[in-house]
Amino acid sequence: MVAHLTRLLGPAHIDLAEETVQETMLRALQTWPYQGVPENAAAWLFRVAHNVAIDAVRRNQIAGEKTDAMVAELFRAPLAALDDPDIEDQLRDDELRMIFMCCHPEISRDGSVALSLKTVGGFSVREIARAFLADDAAIAQRLVRAKRKIREGRLTLDMPRGAELKRRLDSVLEVIYLIFNEGYAAHEGEDLIRQDLCFEALRLGSLVASSSIATPRGHALAALMAFQAARLPARIDRAGDLVLMEWQDRSRWDQRLISFGFRKFDQSIAGDEISEYHIQAAIAATYTRAVDPHSVDWPLILGLHDQLLSINASPVVALNRAVVVAKVRGPADALAAIEPLENDPKLRDYYLLPAVRGHLLLELGRCAEAADCFRAALGCHCSEPERRFLRRKLEKCEPDRLL
After folding, report:
1. What is d(CA 15, CA 355) in angstroms, rounded to the nearest whole number?
2. Looking at residue 208, what is its pLDDT?
3. What is the CA radius of gyration of the chain?
4. Does an H or E element contain 165, and which?
5. Helix/strand/coil (H, E, C) string of 264-333?
6. Distance CA 149, CA 175 (A)
7. How far apart (Å, rounded) are the C-alpha atoms in residues 382 and 351?
8. Which of 12-26, 85-99, 336-350 has the lowest mean pLDDT?
9. Are 100 and 160 within 8 A, CB to CB?
10. pLDDT grade, residue 402 (50/70/90)?
């Protein structure tokens, strides 16, 4: 909705588009509980958003001719077409155009990603901060600067062409990847998984991969997301609790998505390019090929993590590698691998660092130290299913104590 209204109002009025959508959602919350959800809820929301936008434009009294032009554009919008069952696909094209605009070279890389996540992914400032391992204030400032660039530079939603299009592609893929990650493991809230974000990211990634600007890394990203999305039905149990991969019912993995993932992976290996997405897709493919948890090729996965770390020396990649080290060399070596990460400021409030350390200590029988780690993890931001998982791990450390 934000992307659609931004196209009609103009990118300089992105704040107005966001405010309009908030007002529209508020009206839905106020009326739907009493009048019932409309038969075509999406059409209702878009119609109300159009009317709210028209009222806001007039109320704000944007100077002269511009006001008339903006209102006229809103009136010309094909509202009748909102009843078309294919309207969601048509409107989502606005989302892709919005991401490409947010990734304009005049906007910083971090600003591009943050703005795309906010306007297209619907992320809160806090969710974006968690994705960047940054604080809320820093993200808020990035958003302010990015929007100022759009206004002052009079940037448009017109799709770039040629070399300019390819220059923006890396940022676009990064945005799509982060949208998927937030859906795959939400950083906070009642639910571990937000399937809507996962499948929207997969849709956008597949759209890019099937377009004229398709690249090997675009195919690799689509493959990675397909492999990960295939496991979504088995990642939580009926109570909504986290199920680790080694305990997942593999019969619940989506074979259609797995097949799609392997097709995209085959397309990704054309050419000489090896990107981070290629390696992550190869890791996911290795997990997927294993017929059961005991047949996973852990040495191969460790080698792939070593290769990934050489491309992206992020502390999160190093932490993930340590988990694989435990499978290949044992928990003592894994503890040594994460020791350099203990004071990394980017992992200061990242619950998985103390959680992984606690798990390794528990395997070594050092229960008191493990319990301290799980308590530290519970003090960090995480989703409720993850919090329940940590409490169960803590109970294993102190079975005779009440939490």
Report:
1. 39
2. 86
3. 23
4. helix 162-184
5. HHHHHCCCCCCCHHHHHHHHHHHHHHCCCHHHCCHHHHHHHHHHHHHHCCCHHHHHHHHHHHHHHHCHHH
6. 19
7. 7
8. 85-99
9. yes
10. very low
